[in-house]
Amino acid sequence: MKSGELAQLAGVTVRTLRHYRTIGLLPEPKRGDNGYCNYSIDDLVRLLRIKHLASLGFSLEDIGGMLETLDSDDRSKAADLLESLDRELVGQIELLERKRRTLAMIRSHELDADVPVRLASIISTLKDHGLPDDMMRSERTVMLLAGAMLSESDLDETEAVYQAIIERGLVDDYIKINDWIIDLPEDADEAQKSAVIDRVIGVIDRVMDCFDTSNWEADPTEEELRAEAIFKQYQEQALTPAQKDVCDRVIDIIQKRVTGKSMRSE
Q1: 227 neighbors 145 (Cβ within 8 angstroms)
Q2: Where is the secretion signal located (predicted)?
Q3: Domain at 47, CATH number
Q4: Is-above-0.70 flag for pTM?
């Protein structure tokens, strides 16, 4: 059989045949005088076995070992491989079920599908509480960056802070924080910046109990360092130097109040 005929009989592509030969799943066939591959019925049988094992969920890396085990006198290893595959499939099913639950929540609450659902829920709630459109766009960007990079404990803290802002009736004050920072002139002097910082901290103090000390004391993970770098890039693009200075100093004050230690003193 030529490559095309074998591929058609097995229901695969010729490219798949070549790939299986390359990785050693299929032996190199005999070749005729014209150089074309000449497959035998044994090759077809092996290809069908490979195809069936793949349909069960075995990876191509594991199929070779499974075939060797099935062809040997001792098939005990086959049971181990089947058990391992079953564990993998259970994990995949659980993951798919979580995804289905997430999709159901997105659909039922009409959340943004491209933002992690717990943060998309916050965005939706903030929108319902009257956040202006321009601030919503900014919040959405920040939430997207946070969701992509922060750890679960960091996200827990973020969710707790925003929920407190909503539940404690601080949404209007939260909007004012944005206005105070955005309205800060590029040439703001120290007195102007300090006044904004004092007002911002006055609002944040009312949710300070929601910050998790362990998050702020722990050494940053690699993902958190990447997140910090991304947020710095975002600040460079979205904020003036004066606005960025205010934001950095506010974060430093939070750090000091939560942990008793200032980042700027290091």
Answers
A1: yes
A2: none
A3: 1.10.1660.10
A4: no
